Amino acid sequence: MYLPFFIAKRYLFAKKSHNVINIISLISSIGIGIGSMALIIILSVYNGFDTLIKSQYQAYQPDFVITPSEGKSFSANSVQFEQIASLPGVTQLFPVVEETVFAIYDNRQSIATIRGVEEAYGQISGISENVVEGEFKLGFGDVGNAVIGSGLATELRLRVRFLSPIELYFPDRNSQISMINPAASLNDEFLYPSGIISLNNDFDKSGIYIPISKARELLSYGEHEATSVEIYMDKRSGESLRGVYSEREKELEKILGASFVVKNRYEQNETLYKMMRSEKFAVYMILFFVILIVSINIFGSLSMLILEKKHDIQTYLSMGAGTGIINRIFVLQGWLISFFGAVVGVVIGLILCFIQQQYGIIPMPGNYIVDSYPVDIHFADVVITLSGVLLIGYFISILPVRLLKRD
Questions:
Q1: pLDDT score for 118
Q2: Are 273 and 61 in contact (CB under 8 A)?
Q3: Which of the residues in the chain have pLDDT under 50?
Q4: What secondary structure letter does DSSP report for 86?
Q5: Dihedral (C-alpha) 292, 294, 295, 301: value to the nearest 10 degrees?
Q6: Under a CB-based contact definition with an 8 Å cutoff, are residues 237 and 88 in contact?
Q7: CA 73, 79, 82, 87 torsion-angle sign
Q8: Under a CB-based contact definition with an 8 Å cutoff, are residues 146 and 209 in contact?
Q9: What is the pLDDT of residues 137-190, one digit of tens each?
Q10: Where are the beta strands (DSSP E) in 6-89?
Q11: What's the CA gap between 134 and 59, in Å, rounded?
Q12: At what angle do helices 19-58 and 270-308 cross, to 10 degrees?
């Protein structure tokens, strides 16, 4: 057995002449264990929320969104989009017309964001599963329908069974604004609510799905004009095979050139994902510094142990042991305190996470989409936690050994 490790292990578990050394070492190990356990649990809960939010968005989010690099709209009827439609794995292309308009319902007014889409959009994208009242239906014969965000529906006091239409207004791009009769300079559309949908806070408070033909008429757009094109891929190509997914993104950028911007799922919600990663990193650093403060006890414990073992040190030197071996003995002693605390803490943390994952013992407060706190254990978090704690223990252990060299 490695001699410094053998002696360090004996010092760790052997009874000292001053019991306070054992107590300080035990407190250090327990503190490190609690910090490690907290890190594993909190990081796993953050992973759970991250996975939950991603699943909520990705349930209806397109694989890619194409927008013009300059200007607001473009023609979606071109050779480029025909090439994209023929790419392996691409199942559907949907032109979308999006704009902010003025909405009125029974004399109640609000600013709304319309999204003009085709009738099949609700089923292909999966958003029709989020309809909370009525159905995702955008037309009945020549009559246009609208699917309203739940927040906007509440603000306008709108229900799908009410007979009044929702009125949408937008300035006519092809006419001059009349100061005598401003209303004559506005395009309008009257649509009957067919459904109320709940997707996310941003859409729910102002979003409306309407037929794309009605959106083009309201905005004075051409027959094939759109503000974006959403691309949906075969699930096996888009999600399971990440290499294929990345390859398609490069092909899209090559076909479209610099005139368009291609956004994948991450880039469509880049701010949200960056915020979640930043919060997770901030929590990790806070707990990391807590562990660092607790680990300072190791310095006190080792300093007292070195003073107590001065006679042993002289014995080792007289037997031919070099200063390097003696230094390693006490560094390993401090590192073992961190090691046992970290391992025990991580194991307990993993057990608690597994119990929560399987049985959901701790419930979520309030009315949320899940009943209990979501937990998702990542192996990388375990490695980062153990590595960070053990590095802290190692560097803290070096400090009293350097003092030993001076003596």
A1: 93
A2: no
A3: 1, 17, 237-241
A4: T
A5: 160
A6: yes
A7: negative
A8: yes
A9: 998 777 889 999 999 999 999 988 777 899 999 988 777 666 666 666 788 999
A10: 64-68, 74-75
A11: 20
A12: 170
